[in-house]
Amino acid sequence: MIPLITSEMLGHGWMKASEISDIVAIAEMTPGPLGLNCATFAGLKAAGFIGAVAANLGALTPSLSLCLIGAVFFEKFKKSNIMQKILVGVRPACIAMVIGVIFTLSASNYVTDSGISVISIAISIVDILLLRIAKLGIPTVIIISAITGLLIYGVLGF
Amino acid sequence: MKKDSDNIDTTKEEMTPETSAQHEVISRSSLRSLFLDFFKFGLFTFGGGWSIVAQMQKIYVEERKEISSQELLDLTSVGRSLPGTMIGNIAILFGYSRHGVPGSIVCLFAMVLPPFLVLLIVAGCYTAFRNNFWVASAMNGIRCAVVPIIIMAAFNMIKGAFKFKACYLVTVICVVLYLLFDVNCVYLVILGAICGLVISEFYERKGGM
Q: What tens digit of pLDDT does each residue of B103-142 get?
């Protein structure tokens, strides 16, 4: 998605190369999926508010069209015998994707240029306890982690 | 566990999108609460689409018991393998299963609205935002929460994901293909589907004899 946006933006002269590198940084810092955030940001830079709306609608078109058709079929056939058999194998594959994502995200979140970040891992362990034992909601845990980040990385300067 | 899913199945029969006109009388999330839920999901989705699956697991599977973890897993697999943004697809699929087309549109737009609004504000001063020390510190903290959130979701979704012992093998093979060979998720889902057919067929014949 990123290389595609880069070449289109530069090709049309809508953004400068330095602005494009900012897209990813900003898209990662704000909530929401990276692809949609890139679209919003690029749309804003290229044509203001209307551009942002247009870019979002564009990025959502596959979901609104193909996936909606997919949803109709899936609802219709999910109880069918053959679909149930297919799902027997698809569910383990989906679990595998989650495990894969956990590995790749861990690699990028805990391994920094200066080695493995013990403090990040410690915060994560606390987060697991908050989710599992204290049964806190996900938004609460995110807010607690943000405050912890402010204190530990910001105030204490780790 | 079995009984639970049976219950869900029978209520589901009455909940097909065709009957969505009578949604007031059926106890499931209303369009309004779908909007509020997905607005919240959108606001707290950091670190990629998987945290929305975790939030749905927490709200719809654990707290309200509207869907089973298998159903969520099914939606996720279908959403991941169709083109477009994964979480957009999941919103569409879940919304459709609740309230047909209006449900899917409500879920999708409620979810994309918060990131859109946040970016509208941030984009005006993004250079200051990007280089702000305190924002970066808070983001570092949030990043620490992402993996735990997904781990907990995976932990909860594993229940009921493996119908037969051979299913574990499918997971192991797919993890290896994903991590070591960088195989696209669509192919993993297709591989899973084929394995599912073969495994189910095998156990059915074995059971029949």
A: 899 999 999 999 899 888 887 777 777 778 888 888 888 8
pTM: 0.81
What is the total count of domains within chain B? Answer: 2
- Do B177 and B137 reside in the same domain of the chain? no
Residues B120 and B198 both lie in one domain: no
Strand partners, A115: A112
The answer to whether the CB of B85 falls within 8 A of the CB of A63 is yes
Nearest-CA neighbor of B105 among B50, B38, B45, B42? B38
3-state secondary structure of A116: strand
Q: Which of B112, B109, B106, B113 is nearest to B29 (CA)?
A: B106
Does B116 lie in the same domain as B139? Answer: yes
Which domain, by its residues, includes B193? 162-209
Give B8→chain A minimum CA distance, Å: 12
- Residues of A in Cβ contact (< 8 Å) with B148: 124-125, 127-128, 131, 141
Specify whether B24 is located in the same domain as B46. yes
Distance CA B148, CA B200 (A): 33
